[in-house]
Amino acid sequence: MDKIMIHGGSKLKGEVTISGSKNSALPILFATLLTDDPVVIKNVPSLDDVRTTLLFLNFMEKETVKRGNAIEVYSSDNRTYKHIAPYDLVKKMRASILVMGPLLARLKKADVSLPGGCAIGARPIDIHLEAFKKLGAEISVEGGYVKTFAKSGLRGTIINFRFPSVGATENVMLTAVLAEGETTIINAACEPEIEDLAVVLNKMGAKVTGAGTKNIVIEGVNKLHGFKHEIIPDRIEAATYIIAAAITKGEIILRKVIPQHLKSINDKLRKSGLYIKELDNTIYVKWVKNLYPQSIKTGVYPGFPTDVQAQWMALMCLVNGRSSIKENVFENRFLHVAELRRFGADISVGGRVVNIKGVKKFSGAPVMVSDIRAGAALVLAGLAACGTTTLSRIYHLDRGYEMFEKKLKELGADVRRFCD
Ligand code: EPZ
């Protein structure tokens, strides 16, 4: 199995180019199922989750061609339009549930294997299914599959989310664009990835307004056509590198970012004492003095993202003083606490709150990755630690960080991947 070895202590210096957003690329790739026309999607990150999604499209008899960081998607001439998404594909990636929307929209039926939970939580799909029911689909669960069937077609309606689920917002958008009449989502997710998906759907001929706000209105149309699009930069990857500069007391420039997408994180980092300057699609970060502890509460966008919580925890563990983290989005997103303690972190957990007492230094240790962002936090801890850190189960990292070691090496980190 692949592992990563880090010899800590290097201050990161130099430039890093941020890749396209994983969490924007996935729904947009699934959106290609809504048309038989060719599409071209640029700035697609080379990640395992993207490769899994391309396997999905191939299973649905879409031909996919990778040209650099662009993906071209074509429909096979005699497509049979499968409506089933098999377990062996779905189990690789929870976001596979996003295949349900396009299949329901075009075929009026979809059988998708239940995605199952993951390390950070049970990850239910009740909000998705409630919405499909309101749009006119019958739902049943048989043999580990969620089966949906809209025998009288899909009709637009008002859908009020009990929680602004990102995936459920995307799934409803992917369905309602071909439903009859108007659909309004109340309490929709506002993440930038939702806006990026809406831009794509409107390029396809859909009529989506309000994306990025709590209320999204989708007027159904009969047919959608091809599109060309460039995926927005990955704000979570960018935040990870900014925190890497802070934790190693370094100085880096990030290229191809959208600073507005990082506002909640950069506001907290500035309050902590990090120097940050934003210029168009560039961010300059420099550690200039010992940081002050800053407590955070994660929340939906534009709040502090849950996907940066673990990285923030690693940073606060090495800042003198006390801070706390409240995780408001997922019920079990503290698996990195035990691993950070192996470096010497002083953290206590009480339900959805952790209390941190900063320590002077970390000592490198062998640690295990439990999910994408926990893995990123352990990499940051290893970069700052004295001595050697070895990370196992790094396949989680390969799902969400493109060329992670290569980019870190170019910033001066002593990091290498090996197989043992
Ligand atoms: C998306 O997951 C992201 N994944 C996650 O990023 C991210 O952490 C999450 O949004 C929150 O921002 C992708 O975009 C592919 P949710 P998603 O539906 O859509 C509960 C990463 O590291 N919920 O907004 O699954 C759920 O259990 C990943 O890149 C229900 O209860 O997130 C969770 O507690 C990790 N019922 C909360 O809502 C539902 O039907 C947020 O989930 C759906 C969700």
Word description of this protein:
By secondary structure, this protein is α/β, with parallel strands linked by helices. It has two domains: 2-19 and 233-419, UDP-n-acetylglucosamine1-carboxyvinyl-transferase, Chain (Alpha-beta prism), CATH 3.65.10; 22-230, Alpha-beta prism (UDP-n-acetylglucosamine1-carboxyvinyl-transferase, Chain), CATH 3.65.10.10. It contains 14 helices and 24 strands. The chain has helices at residues 22-31, 48-59, 87-90, 100-107, 126-134, 166-176, 192-203, 235-247, 263-272, 309-316, 335-341, 372-384, 395-400, 404-410; strands at residues 2-7, 13-17, 39-42, 62-67, 70-75, 84-85, 109-113, 138-142, 145-149, 158-160, 182-186, 207-209, 215-219, 228-230, 251-255, 275-279, 282-286, 296-297, 322-326, 346-350, 353-357, 366-368, 388-392, 414-419. It has a four-stranded mixed sheet with strand order 22-23-1-24, covered by helices on one side. Strands 2-15-17-16 form a four-stranded mixed sheet. α6 links the parallel β10 and β11. The longest helix is centred in the middle third of the chain and has 13 residues, at 235-247. Ligand EPZ binds next to α1, α5, α6 and α12.
